[in-house]
Write a structure and sequence with these properties.
With 147 residues, the protein is an alpha+beta fold. Helices cover 56% and strands 14% of the residues. It is built from six helices and five strands, in the order αββααβααββα. It has a three-stranded antiparallel beta sheet with strand order 3-5-4. A two-stranded antiparallel sheet has the order 1-2. Helix 2 runs antiparallel to helix 5 and helix 2 packs across helix 6.
Length: 147
């Protein structure tokens, strides 16, 4: 059987990745071909945070709230959408625990909760460190002289 250059390159990448990737990662499984495949789902709280941050309107609401507690009606003013639509965005932010609502009479006040942002930033940094270590090891291996 003749294997073309792309097939050889894929096989080499599989061998190198299998050798250098840490097989003891608790959220991973080894595929029969030897590739490390992440199979665990993200923590629900992280999913909610990242989903909430995915929308530019919700990010703008968080930016507004970063300046301090604000009434819902004041949060909604700069947007060219209905108050009902803004309220739906706020509910998504509340579900992700990014926004805390306080009622004072008929008024609803919103404030930013930074904890989910800190947790997401910590997760992103851990992923960055994990992959930087793996890629550095691969780079060192590729630059070693042949035995």
């Amino acid at each position: 059987m003749v294997v073309g250059l792309p097939g050889v390159m894929i096989f080499f990448a599989v061998v190198v990745l299998t050798f250098f990737l840490d097989k003891s990662v608790p959220t991973a499984d080894i595929h029969p071909c030897g590739l490390l495949i992440m199979v665990a789902a993200l923590d629900e709280r992280l999913d909610l945070t990242l989903t909430a941050l995915a929308d530019p309107t919700r990010r703008a609401i968080l930016q507004t709230l970063s300046h301090g507690e604000t009434r819902v009606t004041d949060v909604a003013k700069p947007f060219k959408i209905s108050l009902n639509s803004v309220s739906k965005h706020i509910r998504i932010l509340e579900r992700a625990k990014l926004v805390i609502r306080r009622r004072s009479g008929r008024e609803h006040w919103l404030s930013l909760n930074r904890q989910p942002l800190d947790e997401a930033a910590a997760w992103i940094e851990a992923q960055r460190n994990f992959w930087n270590q793996r890629l550095d090891a691969l780079e060192r291996a590729l630059h070693q002289p042949d035995p």
